[in-house]
Design goal:
The structure is a single chain. By secondary structure, the protein is mainly β. It is 0% helix and 72% strand. The protein is built from no helices and 21 strands.
Length: 281
């Protein structure tokens, strides 16, 4: 039986603190298991559960004593190395105009499918992780998900809430029957406008290397560069089995630039970027 996984990535961020929570269910070798991973500025931890503890009803997940959904997150985790408790309330979500996968959402046999539930929403509340408080007032959140068999062999992903919007960009090695290609999906919300960047719209990776991505799509050009990482280890699926280790910087220094027809729409540097860079540096 082929392996599979399904999981959400829920991120909350203030000027001082970042908290991301990843509830997931995974199946490998006929065995179904589940997990909650927590990543902050200071570390990363995992709690394991039996597969039967994971319940999904539409856009609501329950795992152990924790719940996740449009209204927010309630954490109640007690596991070796991880004690997490608290509640976070979300304001109105900011979904994209249409599925981030575009027509690729209908392509069979993809090893991983991506979904963006909200690019930007308000967050308030407090969670304690191993006794340390993570308090969010006038803070922002982001919510996405993945499902399939495996994370890409090589990929880069970045996300950041911006002063006037939010962005997400991913480039990945995509295997198809008989060939491979670098696929790109991304969205930038800026000053009330959505810019979609994707392979199905003609985007191509003009450069991937040294912690940088440069994507060109017609008269649009987007650059993301990891300047100073603070990577923490996370578990990721390989044929449904959570045996792969990736590294995420939940809050690190990065630079972004978006141009159209040679004119700069924005260029900024932030210490609050999230970055996973699984290409050779």
């Amino acid at each position: 039986m082929a392996g599979s996984f399904y999981g959400w990535y829920v991120k909350c961020q203030s000027d001082a603190q970042t908290l991301a929570v990843i509830p997931a269910v995974h199946r490998a070798s006929g065995e179904k298991t589940a997990s909650i991973q927590v990543i902050t500025n200071d570390g990363a931890w995992t709690a394991d559960y039996p597969g039967g503890a994971f319940r999904r009803r539409g856009r609501r997940l329950e795992l152990g004593g924790s719940s996740f959904g449009e209204e927010g997150v309630r954490l109640s985790v007690s596991a070796p190395g991880l004690e997490a408790e608290g509640e976070l309330v979300f304001g109105p979500l900011s979904p994209l105009r249409y599925d981030i996968m575009g027509p690729f959402a209908a392509v069979p046999f993809l090893e991983c499918r991506h979904r963006v539930w909200s690019m930007r929403h308000t967050v308030r509340g407090e969670v304690r992780v191993n006794g340390r408080p993570y308090a969010f007032r006038d803070a922002w959140g982001y919510w996405e998900g993945d499902e399939g068999r495996s994370f890409p062999r090589e990929y880069a992903w970045t996300q950041s809430v911006l002063p006037r919007g939010s962005l997400m960009l991913a480039a990945a090695d995509i295997p198809m029957p008989g060939f491979r290609f670098t696929g790109v999906i991304g969205a930038v919300l800026w000053a009330g406008k959505e810019y979609r960047i994707a392979t199905y719209l003609g985007a191509r990776a003009a450069r991937i290397g040294d912690g940088a991505l440069r994507i060109v799509q017609g008269n649009l050009e987007f650059e993301a560069r990891l300047l100073e990482k603070s990577a923490r280890p996370l578990r990721a699926p390989a044929m449904g089995d959570m045996v792969r280790t990736i590294h995420e910087s939940a809050a690190c220094r990065a630079r972004y630039r978006l141009c159209r027809r040679g004119e700069t729409i924005f260029e900024l540097e932030t210490d609050l970027a999230s970055f996973e860079y699984e290409y050779p540096r």
